[in-house]
Write a structure and sequence with these properties.
Largest sheet of chain A: 6 strands, mixed
Order of helices and strands of chain A: EEEEHEEEEHEHEEEHHHHEHHEH
CATH superfamily of the largest domain in chain A: ATPase, nucleotide binding domain
Strand content of chain A: 15-25%
Shape of chain A: globular
Oligomer: homodimer
Helix content of chain A: 25-40%
Number of strands of chain A: 14
CATH class of the largest domain in chain A: Alpha Beta
Number of domains of chain A: 2
CATH architecture of the largest domain in chain A: 2-Layer Sandwich
Radius of gyration of chain A: 20 Å
Structural class of chain A: alpha/beta
CATH topology of the largest domain in chain A: Nucleotidyltransferase, domain 5
Chain lengths: 315, 315
Amino acid sequence: MTDTPLAIGIDFGGTTIKIGVLFRSNLIDSAPPIATQDFDGPDSLIEAMARVIHELRERHPGIAAIGVGMPGFVDFENGIVHNLTNVRGWVEIPLKKRLFEITQLPTVVENDANCMAYAEWKRGAGRGLKHLIAITMGTGVGGGLIVNGQMVRGARYGAGEIGQTSIDYQGRIGAYGNRGALEDYVGNNEIAADARNAYEAQGIYKNISDCSPAALATAATNGDPIAMQVWDDVARKLATTVMNGCWLLNPEAIVIGGGVAKAGDLLFAPLQKHLFAQLSGPFKDHLSILPARFGSEAGMVGAATLALEEAGHVI
Amino acid sequence: MTDTPLAIGIDFGGTTIKIGVLFRSNLIDSAPPIATQDFDGPDSLIEAMARVIHELRERHPGIAAIGVGMPGFVDFENGIVHNLTNVRGWVEIPLKKRLFEITQLPTVVENDANCMAYAEWKRGAGRGLKHLIAITMGTGVGGGLIVNGQMVRGARYGAGEIGQTSIDYQGRIGAYGNRGALEDYVGNNEIAADARNAYEAQGIYKNISDCSPAALATAATNGDPIAMQVWDDVARKLATTVMNGCWLLNPEAIVIGGGVAKAGDLLFAPLQKHLFAQLSGPFKDHLSILPARFGSEAGMVGAATLALEEAGHVI
C-alpha cells in the first residue's frame, strides 16, 4: 500500500483565493493569497491560479491532484461552476477542464461547504461516520451531508444548503424567495444586528462592530447577560434546523464549524439543550454534537482530500 | 432470469392489520383484516398473523418472503419493533425473528412510511429515481427518503420523519417536545380544525366532520372560497417542509400520497406555486411534484417488494 501523495487544495473565496499544498490534513506549504477582485474575469484569474499551482509544483514535485472549493453552485461531475454571485464573469465556467488542460493533473471542483464537510468526514471530527451533518457558520451558513457513508450531492449537485432551509414559514423573504431561511437569522451580520437591538432595548447603545460574534463571545464569557441571551437565541434557531436534519436523516453526529462556532460552549451548550428537548430517543441517544476540527483551512483540506480520493489514491 | 415470486405484504395499523399476497404491485389475494385492538398483546397478535399467513400460503404455495410495515420505530436490520404508542405491549418485540421462526420465510420489518416510500420508488410514481422524497399525509404525516439510489434509514433507522420537522421555531410544542412540527399543522384533524375556525370567522358554523379534508375538497371543487383558502394554507405549510427537503437533498421528485393528497390539484397546484417561489434554479428546474401511485395498498406493496429485494429475488 502506497502512502498518500501530496495534493493542492484551493479555497476560492469572494475576497481571496487560498492555495495550499496538503499532506493528509497538514498544510505543508502555501502561496500568498490571490485577491479575487483584482481580476476582471475568469480567464485572467484561472491563469493566476495556474501560475501559483506551477510554483508550488516546482517546490513539491509529488503533487498528484488538485481540488478546488467554490463559493457557489458547481456541477461536481463535470466541474462546471454555474454562477458566482460575488465574482464577475463566473457563469458556466468549466473550471475542472481548464485547470486540467493547463496542469494535466486530475482536478475536482466542488462547492466550498461540501469541501468543509468532506474535510471533517475524512480527516476531522466526523471521521469514519456513515451519517453526518456538517454545518459551517460565518457570514453565510452552509453545510454538507453524509448519508449511508456517501456525500449527498443530489440530482443537480445542489444538496446541503442548510442555511437556506426555513425555520419559520411566515418569516421574511430571503435571497432565493425562501421565507425564514436559517442564514437570515444566524449569519454573522444578523447575529450582530440582533445583539445591537437587544442592547438597545436595555438602553445600551453599541456600534455594530462591538456586536460581532467574537465580541459577543468575549462579553458572554465575562458574564454579560444580554450577550448570553443572544447566544441562547442563536442556539435555539440553529437547533430547529439541526432538529429537522435529525428527524430527516437520523445522523450519528452534527459537526459545526466556521467563525460563529468559535464561541464554543456558549453556542454548543444551549444548542444541545434546545435540540435534545425536541428529539425522541432513537434520534438523540447516540447523537454527538461536535465542534469542527478544522478552521480556515477546512476548505483546502477537504478539496485536496476529495481530489485524491476521486483520482483513486489512498487518502 | 427468473420471474418475480409472490410475497406477503402486511400493513400493521393501530386499528386493523391488512395482509395481502402481492405479485409485483398487484394485490392478488388478501385476508379479512385483523382487528388490532382485539388482542391483548404481541404473542396472541403474532399468532393471529401467522394463522393468516398460513392460510394464504396454502392458497399460494409460491410465496417467497414476508414484509411487514409497522406504525412506529423499527430496528430494520434486526427486525425489532421498538415501541408502538397505540398498541399495548409492543415494546422491543423481535417481530422478524418471531415470524421467521413460525413461517421459515425470509421476513423484513420496516417502518410503514418507509414502506410507502419504497413502493413509490420501486413500483410507483418515483420508479427509477435516485433522489426522491416521499410524503404520506393522513392523520399523521410520514415520509421516506431515497438518496444516491438508496433508502435512507440513518444511524438508528429513524430517518424520514418528515412530519416531525418544524416549520416554525416558535410554534407550539408537539408530541416529542418539537416545536412547530408539520404534522401539527397539516394532519387530518388539524386541517379540519383550521377549516372550522375559518368558517366560524365568517359566521358559518360547521361540525368538525363537515370539515374533513374530503369534505373540504368537495367544497373547494364547488368553488367555496373558504375551502380553497384552507387548501392554499395547507399547501403553503407543506411547501416549507418540502422546500427544506429540496435545499437539503436536491431531489428529482417529491411524491405525495395518503388521504389528504386525494385533494389532487387543490393541494398540488398551490404547493407547486409556494414551493417554486422559494427555490433557486438548480433545485426546481428539474423537480417534479407527483401524486403517489398507490393508495391504501401502498404499505403492503412496499413491504412485500422490500421483502423480496432483501431476500435476493428479482423484483
